[in-house]
Amino acid sequence: MTPERRNLTPDLSISRILTGLWQVADQEKDGVLLDRSAGAKALADYAREGFDTFDMADHYGTSELITGEMLRTWQGSPRPIAFTKWCPEPGPMTAEIVRKGVQERLDRLGVDRVDLLQFHWWSFEHPAWLDALHEMTKLRDEGLIGEIGVTNFDAAHLNLALADGIPLVSNQVSFSLIDRRAAGHLAETCRKHDVQLLAYGTLCGGFLSERWLGKPEPDAVKDWSGSKYLRFIHAAGGWAGYQGILSAADTIARKHGVSISNVATRWVLEHDHVAGVIIGARLGENQHRADNLRLFQFELDAEDHALLVQAFAATTPIPGDCGDEYRQPPFLTASGDLSHHLAEMPSAMQAVADPDVPDRARVFSGSLWEPIAGYCRALRDGDRIVISGTTATHGVDRTVALGDAGAQTTYILDKIAASVRALGGDPKDILRTRMYLRGEEDVEDAARAHGLRFAAHPPANTTFLVGNLIGDFRVEIEAEAVVSRKIG
């Protein structure tokens, strides 16, 4: 028996159990690298048993090099499938920078084409992520990339990327009995655009297993994965609620004669927008392949789902949407912040102090019309910030997401948030927005995008139908904020 398969695209069939290599970084964090040849042989053992789809990233230690060695020495056809990720620091994404990032993945894997290259971006307030994806699309057309995916994208920005013409096939996100965000807005977006999810964290770093059933909460966890997912448990309401889910999964596991981990993973796999689950491999250690195959020997029934829903009710939903744990507090990472990922988070906009008026500063977005018409993107005067009517203009004069009011709203609100932050405020300081829409057909999509952004801190809002916005814009938004922090 081998794992079930799913077509990610008509030409790309994958194992529904992907072998994740993030734990290579954990195994190498003391500076001692894994033996590349031994690691390659371990991966080949996975591939020969049907676990032939491997997922890694540029920052997972030597995972790409180990996989490259496995691919180089592989005998037979077809060869195993290698997915990797590119996670650059925020900043300008020129054609040269993107090509260099992609070429590094090719060189480390020793291949002419990456089967699936997944892109991660740390802050959507820095708009260069769209430049990166468009450059990756060009490299896909050249044949250097087989397919393009993203990782840790929320529903709004997945929709924005697709509306702007990026041919995405997948989004890799956290999805588990503890973290159920991917069953919400993101599921709707995936169904709308025929994008599939690759789910990681399905076992919450090993917490969704018999090992922790009925056990007290640990004071600390040594490995990065465990530290990270203990934070998820806390965010979901704490140890008692987690134990309730674990108990329900245990009851279901005993009923079907499988493990708790099987139940946890099966629950994720049964969502129709999930192409596969990523289960980590500690090379040379516990492999669990035989147990994982039992995923395909049972299905959850109505009684099982009812028991889990009852357990969910005693927990707290993880806040926000998928990927928010990397972009805003609470940072649900191993360190509780981004310090082990980034040294700093550069801004796309810079405040310029007014030399003639104390306590006044401005930011400019670089649009074509700002110098022509003599206005700035946003101005802070004392504690008050006012943001000019903002459209989905990318760079100097390109309109983003033609024809999609919801996607344009998402992009505009990113630009507004970046303006407020550059002037010393925070997006939650926004007290009022005014939306100008081209027509009635734009109202619902724009309103829903606005609602997703301001779910936690809703401002006052006024919406106008104007019917004659300039150019290709479906939406224009003004905003006002009041902050108590000093400039600079």
Written overview of the protein:
It is built from 15 helices and 19 strands. The longest helix is centred in the middle third of the chain and has 18 residues. The mean pLDDT is 94. The protein has an 8-stranded parallel beta barrel with strand order 3-4-5-6-7-8-9-10, surrounded by 4 helices. Strand 4, helix 3 and strand 5 form a beta-alpha-beta unit.
Head-to-tail CA distance between termini: 62 Å
Which fold name fills CATH's third level, the topology of the largest domain?
TIM Barrel
Unreliable segments (pLDDT under 50, ≥5 consecutive)? none
Number of helices: 15
Strands of the biggest beta sheet: in what spatial order?
3-4-5-6-7-8-9-10
Record field, number of beta strands:
19
Strand count, sense and barrel status of the largest sheet are:
8 strands, parallel, barrel
Which word captures the global form?
A: globular
CATH architecture of the largest domain: Alpha-Beta Barrel
Strand and helix layout:
Elements: E1 5-9, E2 12-15, E3 17-20, H1 23-27, H2 36-48, E4 53-55, H3 63-73, E5 81-86, H4 95-109, E6 114-119, H5 128-142, E7 145-151, H6 155-163, E8 168-174, H7 185-193, E9 196-200, H8 224-235, H9 239-256, H10 260-269, E10 274-280, H11 289-293, H12 302-312, E11 352-353, E12 360-363, H13 369-373, E13 378-381, E14 384-390, E15 393-394, E16 398-399, H14 405-422, E17 430-437, H15 443-453, E18 460-465, E19 475-482
Parallel strand pairs: 3-4, 3-10, 4-5, 5-6, 6-7, 7-8, 8-9, 9-10, 17-18
Antiparallel strand pairs: 1-2, 11-12, 12-13, 13-14, 14-19, 15-16, 17-19
Précis, in short:
By secondary structure, this protein is of the alpha/beta class. It has helices at residues 23-27, 36-48, 63-73, 95-109, 128-142, 155-163, 185-193, 224-235, 239-256, 260-269, 289-293, 302-312, 369-373, 405-422, 443-453; strands at residues 5-9, 12-15, 17-20, 53-55, 81-86, 114-119, 145-151, 168-174, 196-200, 274-280, 352-353, 360-363, 378-381, 384-390, 393-394, 398-399, 430-437, 460-465, 475-482.
